[in-house]
Structure formats: C-alpha cells, structure tokens
Amino acid sequence: MPKRSDIQSVLVIGSGPIVIGQAAEFDYSGTQACRVLKAEGLRVILVNSNPATIMTDPEIADATYVEPITPEFVEKIIAKERPDALLPTLGGQTALNTAISMHENGVLEKYGVELIGANVEAINKGEDRDLFKGVVEAVKEKIGYGESARSVICHSMDDVLAGVDTLGGYPVVVRPSFTMGGAGSGFAHDEEELRRIAGQGLTLSPTTEVLLEESILGWKEYELELMRDRNDNVVVVCSIENFDPMGVHTGDSITVAPAMTLTDREYQRLRDVGIAIIREVGVDTGGCNIQFAIDPTDGRVIVIEMNPRVSRSSALASKATGFPIAKIAAKLAVGYTLDEIPNDITEKTPASFEPTLDYVVVKAPRFAFEKFPSADATLTTTMKSVGEAMAIGRNFTEALQKALRSLEKKGSQFAFTGPVGDKAELLAESVRPTDGRINTVMQAIRAGATQEEVFDATKIDPWFVDQLFLIKEIADELASVERLDADLIAEAKRHGFSDAQIGEIRGLREDVVREVRHALGIRPVYKTVDTCAAEFAAKTPYFYSSYDEESEVATRTKPAVIILGSGPNRIGQGIEFDYSCVHASFALSDAGFETVMVNCNPETVSTDYDTSDRLYFEPLTLEDVLEIVHAESLAGPIAGVVVQLGGQTPLGLSQALKDNGVPVVGTSPEAIHAAEDRGAFGRVLAEAGLPAPKHGTATTFGEAKAIADEIGYPVLVRPSYVLGGRGMEIVYDETRLASYIAESTEISPTRPVLVDRFLDDAIEIDVDALYDGHELYLGGVMEHIEEAGIHSGDSACALPPITLGGFDIKRLRASTEGIAKGVGVLGLINIQFALSGDILYVLEANPRASRTVPFTSKATAVPLAKAAARISLGATIAELREEGLLPKTGDGGTLPLDAPISVKEAVMPWSRFRDIHGRGVDTVLGPEMRSTGEVMGIDSVFGTAYAKSQAGAYGPLPTKGRAFISVANRDKRSMIFPARELVAHGFELMATSGTAEVLKRNGINAIVVRKQSEGPGPNGEKTIVQHIHDGEVDLIVNTPYGTGGRLDGYDIRTAAVSRSVPCLTTVQALAAAVQGIDALNHGDVGVRSLQEHAEHLTAARD
Amino acid sequence: MTLSTRGAQTPAVLVLEDGRAFRGRAYGAVGETFGEAVFSTGMTGYQETLTDPSYHRQVVVMTAPHVGNTGVNDEDPESGRIWVSGYVVRDPARKPSNWRSQRSLDEELAAQGVVGISGVDTRALTRHLRERGAMRVGIFSGNAIPDEGTLLARVRQAPEMTGADLSAEVATKEAYVVPAIGTKKFTVAAIDLGIKGMTPHRMAERGIEVHVLPATATLEEVYAVQPDGVFFSNGPGDPSTADHPVALMRGVLERSTPLFGICFGNQILGRALGFGTYKLKYGHRGINQPVQDRTTGKVEVTAHNHGFAVDAPLDKVSDTEFGRAEVSHVCLNDQVVEGLQLLDRPAFSVQYHPEAAAGPHDAAYLFDRFVSLMEGQRA
User: Is domain A150-215 in CATH 3.40.50.10490, yes or no?
Assistant: First the structure.
C-alpha cells in the first residue's frame, strides 16, 4: 500500500519543555518524523514551545510554531493552517493528551483534521488502566495467556481504602491514570503512605483516577517495542530487560538490550502477547511499547502497561538496534507498510523484519539528587532521573562498565580500592534501590557477600549478579598479579575496565597504563550497529568500540571533523548543547568536511545515525576519545576536534586532548583556562578595564571569612570549574559561611572556593557572541526577569532586552569584545553581566556554546552554533556574512525596533520530588540551577510573549480570580503597583497580615489570611495552605528573603506545586505576569510561525 | 571464590578451509570436530538450535554473544540429542539463570561430546562467512594443538555439504505415533527427514494423529496408516541427493493426498515438480526473517534454517506434471523462494519453519492451512 494521496499537510505536536520523564528523545523522534514527512512532499506544520530543539529549527518543518502546547493555542494554529491531519504520537504524553483534548472539545472535527498514527479509541484503550485491563483479558481469551496484576480502579480516597482490602492488604502499588513518566505513582506499605500517594495521584490524574494493584516487587521486568502497519504486519523491534527488578521505574533502572535471561519459549510468549495487545488496542500504524513482569520462581507473566506512542524506550530501542522507530512510524502514518520501507542501514532489506543484535546495550540513568538535597533518593515507580547514558559492548560487562563511566559522575564507576566495608551493612543498604545501588552491591561483593546473598537482598537476576562477580574477579586478578601481562590487560579491557580503573587498582597513573597498553598493541576495534548481526553489509557507519579482533572503520579521503557531544542530560547540561553539536555537524558537512560525532546519550538528535557522516556511540572520557581519534587518524586526515559546543564535558577534555597531540580547534585550551581561572580572568578584565564584583578565592574558612569581611555580606560562594551553579549559594552571614565551607567536599588547593560580592537588586544580563579573532558578532542580549543571584538557567529572560537602552548595548558590546579578545576566543562566548546602579559588572565568561544559544538563534533567526563551528575551522565573520550564514549587516545588538520579543522561561521539576517524609521540596530559585528545561514565548510585545512563556511552561496565567500575596520586606515597595494592577483586572487579593497592612496603607484591599505557622483560627478560619489545597487560590506571589526567611514560604510553595497553582517567587516575575495578564485580557493573542517572524525580521533588517 | 579461571582454561583454535583461523578457549567437550561453518542470528533458542537435526554436520556460529544464560532444561530440545557438529560462541554463561534450568550448557555440550570454542570474534567470523560463503571448518581444543598448517590440511579433507545425503543419518529408524491432543480429527503420515519435535506437536494440537515414519518409508508404508495428509519434514543435507523422498512424494502427489512440506520438504516438492535446487552462499539461519505470503501480501517474521533453496520462477505460474504451481512465499531480504503451492492439487510447502522452535509464531497458520486441505478433501 503506497502513501496516502488524501493528506497534503500534517500538524506535528512536539513535547514541549524538557521535564523528568519527557526529554530530548522526543526531539529526536519529532525531528525524524518531520524530516520524513517533508521528504514525502507533505506540508509539515509543527508546534513546540521548546526552542532548544532541532525540530523547531526553521528548516525542519514548513511552518514552525514556537507556541504553548495547549488546546487553545493549538486550535489557533489549526484555524490558521488548516492541516489535513494531526500526528500526535511523536510528542510524548504532552502531544497525546493535547490531541485527545482537541478531539474531545470537537476542534478536530470542526476543522476536519484527521488524527493519524493512532485513533482516540486506541489511545484510550492503551492509556486508561481499566480499559487496558479489559484488553489484556481479551488477549488471554484469544491466545491463552497474558494477565494483568490484580487491581482495583479508584476515584476517591474511600475507594482507595476499600481497595486495599480486596487486594489482600499492603503493600500495594498506586498508579494515577494519564500521567507521564509514572508521575504520582508509588508503593504504599501502610495507610499513611497510601493516603499521601493516592491523594496526590488523584490530583495529578486529569481524570481523578488511580489504580491500586497487587505488589509484584522484585519480579523480573521486561519491555518490548513493537510496530504495526495498516496491513496488520507487526514486528518486535527490540526487547529490553531491566537489571533492577520491579519496583523501580524503567526510566530509573539500568536496562539491557536484548533480554538476557529468557529462553526462546518465554520470549516468544511475550512476543505473542505483545502482538495480540497491539492488535486488540487497535494501534493502526506506528509504535508502542509494552512492559511485562515475570515471576522469577515460576515464570508467571503479568502485563504491566503499554504506551500507544513513541516513547523514551523507543528512542533507546532505535539507538540500540539501528531501527529508527519514529522515522518508520511517520512513514506508516501516511500510508506505507513495513515491507515498502527500506532498512536504512542495509539499504537492500525491508523494515518488515526484527533486528537481531550481536552486541549488548546497557542504559544507565543519570540522577540529580545533589540538586535537591532534601528529596528522598529512594527509587520508586515515579521516574526521578534527569538523563541517561547508553553504551554498547560485545558483552554485558563491557557495555555495563562503559555505561557507568559514560555517566561522568564521581563514583559512578566501580571502585576496587579503599577500605572493604561491612558486608551486612552493605547488603542491608542494597535492599533499597537508589542512585548507585549497583556500586553498593559491588562493595558488598568486595566485602565477601555471596551470589545468593546479593540476590536475596536485591532480587537482581542471578545471571547479572554473576556478571558483577566476574568483573570483581578480574579486578582481583589485576590487583594480585606480579606484573601486568598482555593477556590480562586484554581480558580486563574485554570486560570494560578503563585505563583509569586499571591504574587505580595497580597504583599507576592512567596515562602510564595507556602507554603500557599501547606498547603491547592492545587497542579497541570498532564494530558496526547494523540491525542484522552482520548477515548483510551495513552502509551506515554507526560504531561502538570493543576489544575484539576486527575493526570495521573504513578509510576516507575527506578531512574529518570530530565533534564531541555533551553526554547524558543533567541539570545544567542538557539538550541545548546537543542542539549546538548537531548544528556544527550540519554546518561543517555543508562546508565539505566529513563529520564524526561522539556521544553516549541515546535521547539525542546527535546520536541519530543520520545526523553526521559517522557516529561513535562511546563514553566521553579522555581514553575513549583518544582511541576514536586514533582510529579516525588511521582512516584519513583529521581537520580538528570540536570541544566547544558540548558543554563542560568536552571542554574539560580540551587541555588533555591537546597535550596528547590532538588538534583541538576553536578557542584554545589556554584561552579556556584564561576564562575559567579566577586569577587569569581577573587579569583579562583588568587589561580591558572592566569591573567585576569584589571577590577572592579561598581554600579554608579563615581565608573565606577574611574575604567576606572585606567585601561585606551577602556574598556569593561557589566551587570553581562547575556548570549549572553546582554548589553555588548566597551566604548572608558568617555562620552559614562556616557551614558551607565545612560541607563542601570538593574544595582543595587546586579547586578553591570563589567568594564574590553579591549584587543585590542588580539586573542580570546574558550575552552570546561570536568572535573570530578580529571581529565580534553580538548574537543576542538577554535581560533576566529575576534579579541577579538566581541562576541564569533558572531565570526567565527577554530578548531583545526590554529595559536597556542603546547606551547599555554599546557598553555591553565593548565589554564583550574586550573579553573575547583578551581571552582569545575563536567561536562562541557567553558572558554574564550585572547592571547595578550604573556600573556594568562582569560576573563570568564561558568561552563555549552556552545554554542560551538555541534560544538566541531562534529569537534572532541566526544560526549561531553553525557560525561558531565554521569559525573554529577557520572561517571569518566577514566570510560568513558574505556566505549568508550570518546577516549581511548588523547583529543581535542592533535588532530593529519592531523585532519580536522572545521570552525564555525555565521549567522546574519540583513536583517530581518528595522528602523522606513525603512532603514536597521547596521551590525557591537560587544561584544553583535546578531547572530541567525551558520554553520560549514569542510575540510582538513583551506582555504577550511573557504570558505565552508561562502558558508553555506551567499552564496559562489566570486572568481573574484570587491572588495571594506575601512578600519579603524589601519587596513590599515594588509590589504595590503590580498589586494595584491585579485589582484593576478584577482579582481579589489575599495576603498575610504584614503584606495586607502595607497594601491597605496604599489603598488596596486584601483579605487577611492566616499563616501556616499560626494554624487554623478559633472559628476554623483556614490557613493560606489550606486555602491553596482547597483550590481557592488562582495565583500565588511569595518572595522569600535570606536563609531563614526563605524557609517561611516553604509550605505555601509546596502546596502551590501540588495543586499546580502558578507561584511567582520574585517581584520582577510579578511585574512581568501583570503585563501578561494585561495582554491576555486585552483582545486575542495570535500565533505566528518562526518562518513568518524571520521573514519580518529580515525585511526589517534590510 | 577463586580468581578468574582465565589462566586455567584450555586453548582452542578454529580453522576455516580458506586458511583463516581464530584462537579461543575450549567450550563443551575438548577434542576436535569438523563440519560446515554456518552462522545463526537468533538471540534466543540455543537449545532448540543445537538439537535441530537439520544442523547435522554443521558447525554453528552464534552471532549473539551471550550463550547459555538460561541453562539447559529437558523440555525445549527438538530431538533426542545435540546434532551440531561444533559450536562457536563469544561469551558463554558462567552461571545459568532460569526457573526451568536444570544444568549448564557447558556441561550439556561436554556430556554429549560436542566440541566448541568460545572467546572468538564471532562477528568477524560471521562477516567472513557472509563474504566468502559457508565453508568447511575444524575446531581443535586441548593442550597439544598441532600447527595451523596441519589443521588446515585436515579441514580440507573433511567432506563437503554439497552432495551430502544426510537425512537417513538423523531420521528415526522406527515408526512412532504422536497422538492427537484432544479429539482426533485426522491422521497424517510424517516422513522424518530430520523432523523437529515441535512439528508433530503443532499438528497434534490441531487434532492430528501423527505417524512419524523413517526417511526410507515406502509409498505402501505411508498409505498403510491411512493418512488424511502426508507431511515431509525438514532435514539436513543437499536436496539434490534426496532421490528416494522425491520419488515418494511424487507418489503422494499422484494420489492427490493433501501434502505439506517444511524446509527440506519444500525442496523435495520443488524437485518433484521439476524445479532445481541450489546452494545459497551463506544460507538463512535465524528467527527474524521477513517472508511475504504472496497470496495475502502480509509479512510474517519467521524462523529459518536452510543452506539450499528452490529455483522456481517468481513472476509466473509454472506448468508442472502435477498441474499449475506457483511460488507462494518469498523472503523479502533476498527474494529467495520460501514457499510453493500447487493450484490444481492439495499440496504446498514452505522453506522456513512455521513450527517455530526457536522463533516467532507468525506462520503457525500454515498448519491450519494443512488442516483445511484435509477438510476440503473429505468434503
């Protein structure tokens, strides 16, 4: 069946901002889908509020709407574009839920838009737990096996309490319906836990529905990825087995592909059930994943759930097998059948087959609990990881150890030195799944635990446990032999030991181990991911390393540029850096280079085998990168290695690569040092005559105190060489300074703590710029909405700046140029300034692609990362202007007056975390970055753009209702005007007594409500927290002050999160919100594609 | 727990007839073995593969690196013994894990005297076989392995697969009956050319009493069981040597008894109809092969194990001695004939394995088709 001829245009919905459970994988799948549909000659209309995505690049779709993904805005887009069809299965739960709402409110019918890739009935059958149970029952009826865990559906707390009895008591699992990434689900061991988890679940579920289920904790967990076409052909693309048994969300588990511990009979049974389910649910075309649990004692199979759409697992499965699920799903959606689609990798065979692997893939999750110290780090059925790394090896041990070192986190690799701990203690600790449990297990093995003891404690399958023992035995042998011989080194490498690990065990430096290894001729070979275990020749150079015999890297004649990616997503280093790497690859390919991508993050576009000429799916450690450079140097000429675009990960390798003779292009390692080292950077600033806040560096409390005493509190303290403001804090007094220094484990003479004067009330400004050694191109100037002291990654900002004048821009330009020149930048630089009084302070400079590059690029319609990559390889800004990559004249500092205003807003993961008592974590913003993603609002005026950014990030701003205001003393003055505006818009104000008094004195009436600390009143008057929980508050303004003061609003803010009430924690945000509310109340907010914005901007520039 | 047993392991070497050699460690029995080197791409089902009589005289290279993870049980074998003549794996399991596991694969191979080798670059070996074709191979393990030149000479003395008549070597010597499960509806005479245990089971599930007959069975012996249908099984060797089964099948076709053939049985039908057979460069061995049923256009994912194929025209209906015949199934990877059917008589066959052990169950409907033929004949 060929392509359908009745569809000419398709609307694709993206997944919006990166949040836990819904990350870069949907950019990967969405980008693939848009490209495929466009190549099929369809007009592709895209909506996605996330600017840091490749899919929202203007070339990917025909009309790209960076607008909020809400039914209201999507309807406006449909009304304007009138697409024939809507493809909702590639943008995660967000897209699916939006599509369902638009179906339910009749919009799709009204505009005659056909849902393709999934029908509403199938989506409901797959997603609704009760219906899905019916599906599983029907399947059992037909094929004789497959069952659901015993369960009850509940719509109220009474249902929930009664349900436990029918299931035979605790523990039970709680799963809310229609939430993503398992949000709100968990295990309840007693009534208190049950009330908390189920209460939240009922709130989170859009249908106020939760499922209670028998506990299958400790069972083996599997997942199948399936695809079906409209001719009813079904294939299983991949099987995945979880290393961590049931009880840990699959996104938080170490997972392995293919399944390792199933016989064919058991595997085929899962396959039969999976196929019967996809048919029964009625997924017409496209992919789905199905999760299974298997009782390790008797093989009883339980179907856990299915997702009738492309998912995080399908991205992983695509990377693990070379079978591009999203791309094929898009083709199936427009009418092709699997046998009509060629397998990209072999080119000769069709996609209607099942990939077979001759390697092992291990995915390991990356957590960010260090950012949320109060959060409970126990892993449950609610996903908590913020990113993941994948590794490929020829066996499990190799893949596992590569995955663990890909996590690039202290302590993530197995350690075999140091004191042996207490076996009983370590085993007891292993019972609770946590980030790094596998390391605890390894320590227990070192302490003498037996295989049986490890299994009893963890329920990790005995085969996996034995593999851990195998690794440990090799470590023992490495430690015990008199001298390392070639056989032993080769064996250790074959099981994934890094040079650094071997060095640690032997008491040798990593580079010494490497030298010995090279002298013995032991180097990795590179094998190809080819979907077919070498049955057919592969045309796609998608490589992984292994210590085996034969390498498959072909020679080439074109000079290669090796681009180092950014590794697993984490807070502070996310999809934005992948965006820049992908752009570099595209630009350098256009410029005639052979592009070689190195990365280990399966969620990304950069690790799509289509993105670069060659892909190495490898850890980003010095050892792994040096080996790739070596292999590529044997294949042909290397023009250079790009380290500037992947964030701190590749940047950190820069000097060592250069020391090993690798041609690092762009800003030199020395220049990077000049920007990162306080002393060196101070000299750059002094030479350029630029002021920085008073500061000093200290390695002891004494030194820190002396500096703080001199420059005065509050001070901003932070460790050196970190990204995302890790460990950064505003310190208001000496006591906290002392405890900060005491708690900081990373401080050493080579890594001092930085102490800066904290500029209260300053306006913070971010600048992205390009420098080619002679000329500066000011990419964009972003004015933060929150004041200095809130991490730039967490702060909302506007571009062009809304309160800065021509004089300020001129100063910024001059300062930026001075720094770029002084540091010696060749490519991108990001500088943060603070405007305090009339002094423009330089806070810091990063000579690399920054987090804001995609935002700046989209807001100004100029591809900065592409330009930076070209500059790294020798192009000048003048040449790029001539070529058309950069505008002929002007830059991001000279945007025309009627240029659109873009607002970036950060998205925070608060609702994901609970402390050990089950309470929410505080939501106050600070100097340490904690956001997981961002959205962009773009419109002709600031208010509307801001309102769009809020709608995209958190849901629409309220336009009427009740607003609660409680602000710190210093904010009381600046609160008055916006408060008056709220009243003018018809809001009723609520305030705590102090704030209410100030409002009253200024002629603004506010209802006085009780603080949480006051408790309910004598006549049962509610506290503010109770009001929030009862849904009586529509907007919350709560600004904290100081360390102690910051805690006062804790209950208010956590209540706001759990009830999803917009909560503003700065007065600047309040002022912006008032402008947004004003815009929403004044007439219709329109939508406009990036292409239209760009056309307008280009016209205005000329 | 002792240190890694790395040092203690017995060395082994694999030598291909074109001179390429791979060094590794002994796996299973220690000694030497010869056969035709073929690779299998299935990620599950090693027990079924090892016990499939079609692998007789073949040294099987597993492309999946981890083998033996689920151990060995007494339920999954496809016949009474391991048939492969040698086994090549990369990472054998040290400890099996499965609730049905009774012993380790290493033990099982050793107990049955199957010589294997582990620790070799199986992907390099597979690529080599893909490019150069299946060829003779020897595996030698022990502490006194001769030099490679000597080994190579011995590999080149081993018999080739082309021209090998092997089915009598693997088939049952005595007839036996597999009773129908539930009510008996039909009787089928199944000619054992190397039949797998799952095949009569799949028929029995459908109410068929299966009389499994030796490969040497005569037409009289076949009809002595008063069959509603006759089945020709899979099996090892070169179909061009299978003159007796071809003659037997022609007798069945002449009587228009419903006929179904699998794998070797498909090649025999091809020959009975007057088509030729030929040796594939490296064969189809795996459980992920896309086969299209040309009558419905649907694609099924199927289990394959064949080194030979039927040479029949894909683009037209052929006239044969038994009426019109057409290619009913084709492999989408390489357009190899995967099924034949007669249009004027109740006979069909497939080159792949609908009984699927190991492998997906997509093609199980073919047994239903056989049942329909038998029902049609009765009506």
Answer: no
CATH 3.40.50.20 matches A525-662 = yes
The mean per-residue pLDDT over the stretch A344-369 comes to 94
Match domain A694-758 to its CATH number in 3.20.20.80, 2.60.40.420, 2.60.120.200, 3.30.1490.20.
Answer: 3.30.1490.20
Per CATH, is A956-1081 categorized as 3.20.20.70? no
CATH code where residue B108 lies: 3.50.30.20
Interface-testing mutation among A463, A467, A497, with chain B (most B C-beta atoms within 10 A): A463
**For A113-129, b where at least 16 C-beta lie within 10 A, e where not — what string?**
bebbbbbeebbebbbbb
Q: How many whole angstroms separate alpha carbon A724 and alpha carbon A745?
A: 18
8-state DSSP, A80: H
B4, part of any domain: no
Asked if A469 lies within 8 A of B1 by C-beta distance, the reply is yes
d(CA B338, CA B340) in angstroms, rounded, equals 7
Domain limits for position B311: 167-378
Clarify whether residues B194 and B136 are in a common domain. no
Q: What is the pLDDT of residues A284-335, one digit of tens each?
A: 889 999 999 999 999 999 999 998 888 889 999 999 999 999 999 999 999 9
CATH number, position B191: 3.40.50.880
Q: Which residues of B touch A262 (CB under 8 A)?
A: 44, 70, 98
By the 8 A CB rule, do B318 and B327 touch? no
What topology is assigned to A9-118 in CATH? Rossmann fold (3.40.50)
For the cut 60, the answer to whether the pLDDT of residue B289 exceeds it is yes
Q: How far apart are CA A463 and CA B177, in angstroms?
A: 39
Q: How many domains does chain B have?
A: 2
> What separation in angstroms does the CA of A347 have from each of A32, A537, A539, B240?
18, 9, 7, 33
Q: Which of A311, A84, A302, A318 is nearest to A213 (CA)?
A: A302
Number of Cβ atoms within 10 Å of the Cβ of B372: 13
Joined together, the tokens standing for residue A994 give 């102090």
Q: How far apart are CA A454 and CA A91, in angstroms?
A: 40
The answer for A 681-710 residues in CB contact with B (under 8 A) is: none
Task: Render pLDDT for A606-640 as a digit per residue (tens, 0 to 9).
Answer: 999 999 999 999 999 999 999 999 999 999 999 99
Of A1050, A1065, A1063, A1061, the closest CA to residue A919 belongs to A1050
Which overall architecture, per CATH, does domain A402-519 show? Answer: Orthogonal Bundle (1.10)
Structure tokens at A406: 């890909």
pLDDT score of B369 more than 90: yes
Burial class of residue A36, CB neighbours in 10 A (0-12, 13-18, 19+): buried
Residue where one domain finishes, among candidates B124, B157, B190: B157
Q: How many secondary structure helices (H) and strands (E) does chain B include?
A: 10, 20
End-of-domain residue from the set B95, B129, B157: B157
Contacts 24+ apart (CB under 8 A), B221-224: B221/B175, B222/B189, B222/B191, B222/B248, B222/B251, B222/B252, B223/B189, B223/B255
Pairing state of beta strands A255-257 and A234-242? antiparallel
Which residues on B lie below 8 Å from A348 (Cβ)? Answer: 333-334
Are residues B306 and B206 located together in one domain of the fold?
yes
Chain A residue closest to B69 (CA)? A261
Partners of B100 on chain A (C-beta within 8 Å) are 263, 299
pLDDT of residue A850: 92
Contact between B3 and A477 using a beta-carbon 8 Å cutoff: yes
ipTM: 0.96
Q: Encode pLDDT of A115-149 as tens digits.
A: 998 889 999 999 887 899 999 999 999 999 899 98
Q: How many CB atoms lie within 10 A of CB B147?
A: 8
Q: What would the two tokens of residue A720 be?
A: 């050196």
- Give the separation between CA A180 and CA A712, rounded to whole angstroms: 47
